Every structure is written in structure tokens, then in C-alpha cells.
Amino acid sequence: MPPLLSLQDVRQRVGDLTLGPLSVRVHAGERVAVLGPSGAGKSSLLRLIARETRPATGVITLDQRPLDQWPSAALARRRAVLPQQHGVAFGLPVALVVALGRVARDGDAQQAGIVQQALDQAQAAHLIGRRFDTLSGGEQARVQLARVFAQAWDEREGLLLVDEPLAALDPGLSQSLMDAMSDFAAQRGHALIAVLHDLNLALNHFDRLWLVKQGRLLADCDALPATLPLLEQLYDTRLRLLSDDHGMAVLPLRDSPMERRA
User: Fold this and answer.
1) Number of structural domains in the chain
2) Cα–Cα distance for residue pair 255/262, rounded to 1 Å
3) Which of 127, 145, 168, 186 is most deeply buried (CB count within 10 A of its CB)?
4) Which whole number is the average pLDDT over 129-158?
5) Greatest alpha-carbon span in the chain
6) Structural domain span for residue 107
7) Quick one: pLDDT at residue 168?
8) Degrees (nearest 5) of the Cα angle 58, 67, 38?
9) pTM across the whole model
10) Pairing relation of β-strands 208-213 and 216-222?
């Protein structure tokens, strides 16, 4: 089947960083974690795919149609974006922030019900009635995740793009919301592309890893234990992999004094 998303020889200059060339494909239903050290170009890559920025060269297609040819309203129905920053300019009610995900749909009779269901799925229903600017960082993250759910609620085989979606959350809530995000995408056949710093979430919840270093795609690989040497190369550090019936965990290893002197 043709890919949902395709990047062909995409390049972009971001400050002092040259991003690309990048050539990758993503099919509906796939889950891809974008990993790499800070400043590697991960968020810049996500902004390109979201059409928040344009490539200097190369072509990005969605549903085999060049991304720059999509009308804004149609694109908003096919892909939803959760940015790294969650700020809203005004003190909007939580329900209205979530409803902003539905603005591309005219005459949306189901909006109120979908907003409530999206908040439930993002474990944020208790925040109804609050103002967004009074919420903690973790609460804001949950509300913005609900907005993404509302935007993609009645779409099938669309594209979800999320940038550090769980960075402000405690480990228990991070795990449960990752499960909710994965289930939401799987139920609708959405492709999920997430920029992450948490290697354990990446290995346990995603099918593929894009390893980005200094603007280059170091590897496009399956999320399997055999990727450990590539992860060590990516982060320039030694790692230890632990695995049992509950999943995988990666721990950084401290160098011994002898290794440091070497």
C-alpha cells in the first residue's frame, strides 16, 4: 500500500544546523519515535512534517499529495499536532481549548460530546470549568493532548505529531497517557510520530525509531533490543538494557575512573 507520509531528499537550514537530506516513509498505523540528543533537529523535523515550516529542497507528501498543496482546513482534518510548548495567549476555558481542535469542521453537531470524551481519554475531565492559564504544566499537557484527540477523533488513518508529549508528567501518569495515546492511534489506524527523550517509552510503545544526530538520520530501525549499539552511538554513552515480561528498560552506565582516564 502507498505510504501515508513520505519525505524525499528533504533538506532545511535551521540556524547553524543543516537538517537532512532525509528520505523516509510512514504508513497508516505505524508508531515512530524520534530520538536524539538536544539540538539534533528532532523538533525541526516534526515542524517540517506538520507544515509549520517548509523545506529548502525536497518533497513531503501526505496521502501522495505534496504537503504544500493541501488547503489548511483539509490538512487540519488529516493531521493533528501537539507542540512542545503549551501556552495559550488568553485565559480560555479548558473546554474551549479542547474545542479548538474542531475548528476545521463546519456545523460540528458532535463537538460537545467529542470534547468531553477527549478529556476523559486524556484523564483531564476533572479540569472542566477551569481556565487554561491557571493549570499546572502537567495539567496543560493533558488538556492539549485532549485537543489533539478531539481534532483526530472522527478521522481514520490520519497522522498524529507530538513533541515531548509527556515531559511534564510524573512516571505513573506518563505511562497511562502513553497507553491512551497508543490506544487512540491504534483504534483509528492513525500513524503516530513522537519526539521523545525517554528511551524506555520509545522502546516499549513504538514500532520504529528515527535516530537523529546533528541533523542527519543516523538510522531508521525497529524498536528492538538489538538497537542498543545504535543508541549508544546516538548519545555517545554506554547503556545497559534490562528486559523481562513487562518490557524493556535502558540505563546509562557511568564510566569507571580507569575508563575516564583512558
Assistant:
1) 1
2) 10
3) 145
4) 93
5) 68
6) 5-261
7) 67
8) 65
9) 0.93
10) antiparallel
Name the band, by pLDDT with cuts 50, 70 and 90, for residue 256. very low
To which residue does cell 504544566 refer? 137
- Contact partners, residue 259, CB within 8 Å, separation at least 6: none
Alpha helices in the chain (DSSP H): 42-50, 72-78, 94-99, 111-121, 137-151, 171-188, 199-205, 228-235, 257-261
DSSP percent split of the chain into helix, strand, coil, nearest 5: 40, 30, 35
> What CATH code is carried by the domain that includes residue 252?
3.40.50.300
For position 261, what pLDDT does the model report?
47
- Tens digits of per-residue pLDDT, 201-246? 999 999 999 999 999 999 999 999 999 999 999 999 999 999 988 8
Each residue of 85-101: pLDDT tens digit? 656 656 899 999 999 99
Please state, in angstroms and as integers, the Cα–Cα distance from residue 163 to each residue in 80, 198, 260, following that order: 11, 12, 34
Q: 528511551: which residue's cell?
A: 199
**Nearest to 145, CA basis, from 103, 105, 187, 194:** 194
